[in-house]
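Q: what sequence does this backbone want?
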């Protein structure tokens, strides 16, 4: 296994690195070994044979090379603004070069009347182009060194640059490494797969991703490495799923009994939508199969997921098991309690609630009722996980609005039962399919793709602060018609104090404009005690107040059908999926509803795109796609910590086809060889075990 140890060699043993730089590489880029370094791919390539004329520079160009002479080298500015400036000229014009650091060194290096090749990214400053911290090389040296026309560009950091690890030197290190790596990079895919897809070998691919001999080979290298990256994630997820199905036998809920029927016939106040029926059928099939269910239920806000959860729980109860329902906030847990108590009234179901603020006495009796089996359904927040609750026979766990729960928390829920219960994860954050395939690749997927009938799409309107009086007038009119209104303020941790002040100021100004006794205004925010929050929320639910001023604590799940207006203050500060969630709080009744986006005066292009998207569409899946495009998958709520989305080279949007193919091929291979025991599959098995050891504990992802 000499080959393995090459890639596992600590990076400081590479010529040109040493202990100090190695430490920086570890800290800044998480690069520990040769393998890590060779896996640090360029983020773009430039054509080194292409020299731009200064007159050709345009705003869209990322990196350019210019050949010319440098003059007017001087230090300008005071203190923090101190910088070195120089002028680069060719036969078409001039461009400024600037440096903020290493001034002395530069001053001593650059000589007048010598031709240089300057490489960097032009930016516009005070209407003129300049290049900050360009790389410079004498034209005569440049001609000697270009051996490859395409050169990779590596992203680097300020700290690395200060230690001399700029792009140019990273290229040097990489060259050293790639040369040494010859013959030492083991293949990870079976030869059958390589042949079938006509892929480059891993070694060829890694060589060409860093130093492509020609554009065609770069493409092939990218294709191979993208495929490999996506393929192994899918292989790992699907293998985990198979293993779980084999090891764990699920409780069998064989019959649909009395309570389900009673509920369906007597209690259900409306017809199920076709989509709800379809999903309930899928769940029933899982529950009766003898395998443990692990299903993700996706449905846009207001699509009626709670009902699906309730019917699934009733199936569990009919078969002699208990169920629990986890919600991300106390408000939501309370609301679920009310809904479930109301919906199951008279059919003999005991529902309890356990949250962080449940008093010790009640907690104790809850524990007893759970152990005795008397309690059928327990609703709660993550207090459910922390609390030493023990069930007598827990058969089904439903997790609502899952993006607030981490993967580890889901796993912990399992330990509440000898045999893992069935798990139904519900989410209203529509996740693009490609993302779902990766993030929840080992869960089965159900989708409610239809809203209950009679809903009018929410009208979304954008206003600037100047229109505030008009907005207040509109709110008054809606209140006169008996409607209720949410006013939501942003609150983020980084600026919590200031945000809280804005919220309180906003609340006071609303109370001034909507004075008692004619109006009543509720307020809810994260700093309040849970009991107070709940009190205020309940006043709103009972229509004792007409306006609810709050932070995003009401973002998820709250259901007040009579509320018809959602005003979002500083809407530009919210993420797209958050805006969509908030808008989903209205439009639940039959009346026309409105979402009013109040826009501050500093709005970035990206924020503008978010607001425009909100106006253009009500479709959660479309919104999720735009969100993914704008932010990249790593930033989507709740995905950051998963590690699953730190893709090195593949892109979940652009490489959708590769992803689908990788998933289906992984499935095919496992269906023939579930344990990867065939000799030809050994490279994949080995790579998978390294991956599992080094990175995520995939087994925990349920
Ligand atoms: P979400 O999927 O966002 O959790 P809810 O379960 O809160 O949605 O349902 C939203 C509202 O729609 C609730 O008031 C619920 O009673 C109602 N609802 C659910 N299913 C139907 C249906 N089939 N027909 C009419 N109304 C429904
Ligand atoms: Mg819900």
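A:
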């Amino acid at each position: 296994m000499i080959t393995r140890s090459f890639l596992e060699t600590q990076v400081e043993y590479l010529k040109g690195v040493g202990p100090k730089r190695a430490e920086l590489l570890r800290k800044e880029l998480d690069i520990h070994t040769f393998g890590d370094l060779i896996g640090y791919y360029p983020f773009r390539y430039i054509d080194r044979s292409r020299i731009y004329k200064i007159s050709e520079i345009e705003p869209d160009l990322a990196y350019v090379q210019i050949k010319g002479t440098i003059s007017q080298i001087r230090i300008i500015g005071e203190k923090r603004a101190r910088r070195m400036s120089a002028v680069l000229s060719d036969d078409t014009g001039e461009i400024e070069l600037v440096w903020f650091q290493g001034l002395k060194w530069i001053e001593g290096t650059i000589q007048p009347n010598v031709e240089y090749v300057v490489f960097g990214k032009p930016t516009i400053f005070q209407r003129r182009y300049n290049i900050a911290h360009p790389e410079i090389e004498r034209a005569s040296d440049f001609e000697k060194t270009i051996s490859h026309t395409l050169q990779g560009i590596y992203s680097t950091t300020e700290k690395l640059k200060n230690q001399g690890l700029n792009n140019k030197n990273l290229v040097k290190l990489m060259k050293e490494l790639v040369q040494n790596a010859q013959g030492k990079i083991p293949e990870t895919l079976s030869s059958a797969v390589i042949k079938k897809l006509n892929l480059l070998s891993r070694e060829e691919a890694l060589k060409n991703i860093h130093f492509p001999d020609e554009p065609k080979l770069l493409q092939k290298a990218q294709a191979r490495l993208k495929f490999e990256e996506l393929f192994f994630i899918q292989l790992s997820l699907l293998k985990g799923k198979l293993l779980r199905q084999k090891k764990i036998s699920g409780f069998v809920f064989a019959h649909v009994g009395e309570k389900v029927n009673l509920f369906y016939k007597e209690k259900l106040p409306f017809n199920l939508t076709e989509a709800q029926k379809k999903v309930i059928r899928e769940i029933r099939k899982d529950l009766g199969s003898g395998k443990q269910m692990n299903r993700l239920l996706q449905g846009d806000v207001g699509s009626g997921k709670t009902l699906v959860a309730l019917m699934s729980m009733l199936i569990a109860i009919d078969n002699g098991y208990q169920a629990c329902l986890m919600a991300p906030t106390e408000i939501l847990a309370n609301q679920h309690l009310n809904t479930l108590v109301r919906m199951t009234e008279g059919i003999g179901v005991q529902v309890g609630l356990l949250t962080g603020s449940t008093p010790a006495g009640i907690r104790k009796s809850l524990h007893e009722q759970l152990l005795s089996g008397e309690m059928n359904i327990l609703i709660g927040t993550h207090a459910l996980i922390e609390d030493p609750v023990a069930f007598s026979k827990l058969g089904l766990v439903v997790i609502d609005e899952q993006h607030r729960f981490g993967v580890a928390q889901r796993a912990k829920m399992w330990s509440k039962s000898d045999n893992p219960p069935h798990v139904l994860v519900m989410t209203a954050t529509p996740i693009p399919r490609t993302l779902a395939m990766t993030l929840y690749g080992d869960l089965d997927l159900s989708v409610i793709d239809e809203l209950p009938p009679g809903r009018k799409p929410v009208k979304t309107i954008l206003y600037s602060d100047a229109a505030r009086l008009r907005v207040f007038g509109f709110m008054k009119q809606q209140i006169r018609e008996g409607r209720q209104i949410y006013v939501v303020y942003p609150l983020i941790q980084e600026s919590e104090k200031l945000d809280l002040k804005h919220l309180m100021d906003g609340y006071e100004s609303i109370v001034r404009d909507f004075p008692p006794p004619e109006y009543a205004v509720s307020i809810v925010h994260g700093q309040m005690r849970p009991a107070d929050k709940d009190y205020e929320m309940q006043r709103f639910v009972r229509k004792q107040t007409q306006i609810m001023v709050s932070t995003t604590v009401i973002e998820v799940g709250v259901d007040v059908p009579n509320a018809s207006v959602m005003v979002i203050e500083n809407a530009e500060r919210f993420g797209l999926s958050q805006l969509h969630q908030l808008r989903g709080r209205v439009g639940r009744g039959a009346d026309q509803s409105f979402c009013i986006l109040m826009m501050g005066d500093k709005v970035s292009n990206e924020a503008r795109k978010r607001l425009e998207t909100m106006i253009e569409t009500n479709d959660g899946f479309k919104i999720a796609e735009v969100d993914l495009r704008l932010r990249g998958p790593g930033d989507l709520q709740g995905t950051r910590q998963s590690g699953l989305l730190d893709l090195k080279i593949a892109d979940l949007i652009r490489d959708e086809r590769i992803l689908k193919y990788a998933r289906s091929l992984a499935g095919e291979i496992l269906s023939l060889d579930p344990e990867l025991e065939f000799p030809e599959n050994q490279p994949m098995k080995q790579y998978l075990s390294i991956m599992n050891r080094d990175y995520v504990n995939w087994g925990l992802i349920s």
